[in-house]
Amino acid sequence: MGGRKLVPAALFCLVLAMLPSHAVTVAVMSVDLGSEWMKVAIVKPGVPMEIVLNKESRRKTPTAVCLKENERLLGDNALGVSVKNPKSVYRHLQSLLGKKHDNPQVALYQKRFPEHHLQEDPARGTVCFKNSEEMQYTPEELLGMVLNYSRGLAQDFAEQPIKDAVITVPAFFNQAERRAVLQAAQMAGLKVLQLINDNTAVALNYGVFRRKDIDNTVKNVMFYDMGSGSTTATIVTYQTVKTKEAGTQPQLQIRGVGFDRGLGGFEMDLRLRDHLAKLFNGQKKSKKDVRENHRAMAKLLKEAQRLKTVLSANMDFMAQVEGLMDDIDFKAKVTRAEFEELCADLFERVPGPVQDALSTAEMKLDEIEQVILVGGSTRVPKVQEVLLKAVGKEELGKNINADEAAAMGAVYQAAALSKAFKVKPFLVRDAAVFPIQVEFTRETEEEGVKSMKHNKRILFQRMAPYPQRKVITFNRYSDDFAFYINYGDLSFLSQEDLSVFGSLNLTTVKLSGVGNSFQKHADAESKGIKAHFNMDESGVLLLDRVESVFETIVEEKEEESTLTKLGNTISTLFGGGSSEPAPNVTEPVQDEEEVPPESGKDGKDEEGKGEAKTDEAAKDKQEDSEKSAGEEKSQEKTDDAGSKTDAKEKDGEKSGSTEAEKDVEKKAKPQKKSKISEDITVELIINDILDPTADDLTSSKKKLQDLTDRDLAKQEREKSLNSLEAFIFETQDKLYQEDYQLVVSEEDKEQISAKLSEASEWMDEEGYTATTKQLREKLSQLKSLCKDMFFRVEERRKWPDRLAALDSILNTSSFFLRSAKMIPEDDQIFTEVELNMLEKVINETTTWKNETVAEQEKRSPKERPILLSKDIESKLALLDREVNYLLNKAKFAKPKAKAKAKNSTSSEKSSKANSTAEEKVIPPTEESTDTKSESPEEVQPGEAPPTEESTLHTDSDSQSQPTEETATTGPTENAQPENHIDDEL
Questions:
Q1: Full DSSP string of 230-254
Q2: What is the separation of C-alpha 35 from the centre of its chain, rounded to a whole number of angstroms?
């Protein structure tokens, strides 16, 4: 029985032991992608959530790329070059994503960075940086380099490969901008689990660490986020809700969003820079205008950024730049009052996003419990002063990390989306900032006059929750047609925001095969052309599929056999084989909804009603379809993807009907309705920003990979060069050290010295242009030449410690042997063979040591030694094993039962039996352990750490007496990671 119980345990341990191989790549990361800085966070087994430190041990990294002819620098290294060579450094790329060349944002970028040459991409109409004829890069490619760099930082920090990431984007990013970020990540080789709005990530981070404070009472919080490039105010509602899958769980819902694309810390930096330039020109130390010198302006921008930070804590500060231009130093005093005057119009815009967020959420300031500051620019005192006055609160919340909250919230979401981690559920209902609608033109006839009628149907209203699926049914088409996906009413945007927004038209959808489907099913009743839309977790709208749906009535026999009824019942239970695709990984906010179809009234009435209550109407129609299932209209209006209602329609059942009603209906009308779906061919024409073609993406990936390979090759060459240089200098120095002079002959010393001098000269003449292969070969030759010298020195350094350890264990084992031999015969637990074996090992080791040491003393230090440290270590291991074997036997041995005088024969037998039993539980030596490990039933201790379940079982099974398995469980450090595959964060 014991053997049978052991088999499942052995299998369990085997499964645990196999886990690390799969757990090697389970780490996930998040990137809080700001316009000026990025923060990276990771989750890996054993590390819940942690901000990644870059190579400079900083917690944030500049989103900057430096591209020279033969060099690429990223992060802090690139930012360092921006002062010396601003033309080669690309920053603030976020503002160019998803923009055409004629966009006002591009003109503003050109004004801020006049050193760059921006040209139009002839194929896509977007922006391209042209450094030279050979070096041309799109903003997506440059952002891909930044993301690839962030991935490298995360991998170095996690010490394992990482592919999965959650990336933050501003909440006001439209469809083209979101697609551009996804394209950049694809070029970087990152698998994007989700694009999460940065305000949502902050809200999630706040909620996760205050889970206990969230209950069924609604709590409204506003997050005011002013970063380097933009400002966003977000109203979030926290509340616990009941779910079918996980019971009562906390939830955050984005209720209102207000933003200002151009209000941020960078604009303040630029104004300070221009003020400093004006002061320098006013000093008239140079006849040239400093504003025309790109390098000087880059120096002033760096000083302006430092000045803004210092003025947040001081009333005035002395700005100074050495050698600003023509070796002229600059020094000027700037006060906080001057700074506030320079940015007065910016501070007036601070309350704007708050008012927009409140109007979007249809709330008042009294309903907001707390206003929390996020983003680095909220540290400016004037910003806090104006905001505090605008919100009418006693104080502003500063109880989250303004810089890292978004990165930490995003990495929590990454862990939740990854299958490798188990996190406590926190439901997130994000909201679409911009409404999206479907437009189409249909021919109508009124009083014999034919005309074209333009229709609009709201697909996603403003602040509609997502992820969500929607269905639109076109009922009055019987031939191929086209419709358009566009943005809805954007009147809430200012004229300036609209000009930056770009194209209001998203996609033209051309359908073909509609007429063929009607011809094919001419005898069936058309239920319309259904277009299935999906706004995914990243806020990107997708058209999943379009189908032409028909319904036919099949005559049935009045009396059904028992087998037929049973078959229908089973078919109903299993959903009738729905053809809907699998739902998203993240639960949709609602099931697939049918957008209300157009009525017979004119387009204006239709549009007005449709925009007012799309979601409410869809929900009402779903309820009506359940209550009044006998009406065909409700079936036309409701197409709930993957739901039971759809399955029941296929089997001729109507939801909400009782069994009795069905029987009556069958008797009265023995008919069955059958639903037929025919896929329609879809052609998508993108109207906002064309996506790169597959060839373009492949070319961009290759371009980025070539740069990465070049960087790696350069790093490898520099490493080889440094290794060779260090070896030459260190070895030349060692030749004059006492340890080395003792073991090397004059002849060898001269030879080594000559080779090192020769290599040093070669380094000066050719080494810095030599290839990596040549450098490695040169280093290998020198190491081979010095190998014997290093070996002799190393051995002599190891001897004292090793010999002292050997003497110590010889003394200890000899004392142990004498003690063991003195045990009375009646109490003796060791056999004569075991004691003789230990004595033999002690004697052989002592003899070997004395003879070898004596022989070594006769030899010259310049000869190869015969006393080797590895031999001493093997003797130590042999002695240690023999002594430990006997010690373990003593530890687990049971005391012998005292023999009774009456029955000496039986007591002798029992004592022999006892000694035999005792020998069976003695821990094995290394040889016997190896033998036992071949048995498939044996649990190998130390292969995997015990889980909670296995620990409980082991404790309960082994309380009675310590068996070998529980006593000798080895170290579990090596196999630690698999314990954390299902870590709860």
A1: -EEEEEEEEEEEEETTTEEEEEEEE
A2: 19
Mean pLDDT of 382-408: 90
What is the phi-psi region of residue 577: left when phi exceeds 0, alpha when psi lies from -120 to 50, beta otherwise?
Answer: left
Distance from CA of residue 75 to its chain's centroid?
19
Q: Which of 902, 896, 899, 803 is nearest to 853 (CA)?
A: 803
SS3 13: helix
Does 158 or 973 have the greater pLDDT score? 158
Structure tokens at 220: 């409204």
Strands 468-474, 436-446: pairing is unpaired
Residue 969: per-residue pLDDT: 37
- Residue pair 88/131 in contact (Cβ under 8 Å)? The answer is yes
Q: CA separation (Å) from 643 to 124, 587, 649?
A: 41, 14, 10
Beta strands 247-260; 427-432: pairing state: parallel
Q: Identify the pLDDT of residue 829.
A: 85
The residue type of 786 is C
What stretches of 285-416 adopt beta strand conformation (E)? 316-325, 328-335, 370-374
User: What's the CA gap between 421 and 45, in Å, rounded?
Assistant: 8
- The strand pair at 219-226 and 370-374 is best described as parallel
Would you give the DSSP letter of residue 642?
T
Contact 292, 262 (CB under 8 A): no
C-beta pairs of 185-189 under 8 Å, 24+ apart in sequence: 185/144, 185/147, 186/144, 186/697, 186/701, 187/140, 187/141, 187/144, 187/148, 187/697, 187/700, 187/701, 187/704, 188/144, 188/145, 188/147, 188/148, 188/151, 188/704, 189/148, 189/151, 189/163, 189/701
pLDDT score at 622: 40
Q: What are the tens digits of pLDDT across the range 242-296? A: 888 778 899 999 999 999 999 999 999 999 999 999 999 988 888 888 888 999 9
Q: How far apart are the first and last CA of the chain?
A: 41
Q: In the structure encoding, which two tokens stand for residue 420, read together?
A: 């490798």
What is the amino acid identity at position 731?
A: T
The residue among 448 and 1 whose pLDDT is bigger is: 448
Contacts of 20 (CB under 8 A, 6+ apart): 975, 977, 978
The pLDDT tens digits of the residues spanning 477-519 come to 889 999 999 999 999 999 999 999 989 999 999 999 999 999 9
What's the pLDDT score for residue 574?
Answer: 42
Calpha distance 383→386 (Å, rounded): 5
DSSP state of 865: P
* Residue matched to tokens 């880059």: 298
